[in-house]
Design goal:
Elements: E1 7-11, H1 14-23, H2 25-29, E2 33-37, E3 50-56, H3 59-73, E4 74-85, H4 87-90, H5 106-115, E5 123-129, E6 135-142
Parallel strand pairs: 1-2, 3-4
Antiparallel strand pairs: 4-6, 5-6
């Protein structure tokens, strides 16, 4: 939980919003967390209004439009942190089909961020280990 400010959460799934509401019920009641149903490619916030974005295992669904929207709402100096599973692992998983998930390796995720409006100098990419030793990607882009 942030010491100051407001945490905004967005998901297109009512089920995920219900779970997030339950897990964060005290902070929601206190007005510290606001959860909304919406789409990543049509964020409901003003330009330059968000300090930080954390996107864990959602980049597969975001596409260039989602990255552009994230960049649009970030304040100058704002950051997006993306955590994803590397395509080398995801290609072995039956649920991660090309029809439902866009898969990334480090160069591919860098390319997506650049097509979404971030300059190469604004992007940091690091391979990481996720649960069970699965190869993951950590991307940080600063506007």
């Amino acid at each position: 939980m942030a010491g100051q400010g407001l945490i905004l959460g967005l998901d297109h799934s009512e089920t995920m919003l219900a779970q997030a509401s339950f897990r964060n019920r005290h902070a929601v009641r206190q007005g510290l967390v606001h959860l909304l149903r919406g789409r990543i490619d049509a964020l409901p916030w003003r330009d330059n209004s968000i300090d930080k974005i954390l996107a864990v295992h959602v980049v597969y669904f975001a596409g260039e439009a989602g990255v552009r929207e994230a960049r649009r709402v970030l304040r100058p100096g704002g950051r997006i942190v993306i955590v994803a599973t590397d395509q080398s692992a995801m290609t072995r998983w039956k649920f991660a089909q090309a029809s439902t998930h866009q898969l990334f390796d480090l160069p591919g995720l860098t390319d997506l961020l650049m097509r979404g409006g971030f300059a190469t100098s604004e992007i940091s990419m690091t391979p990481i280990k996720l649960a069970f030793g699965v190869l993951g990607l950590l991307a940080i882009a600063t506007k």
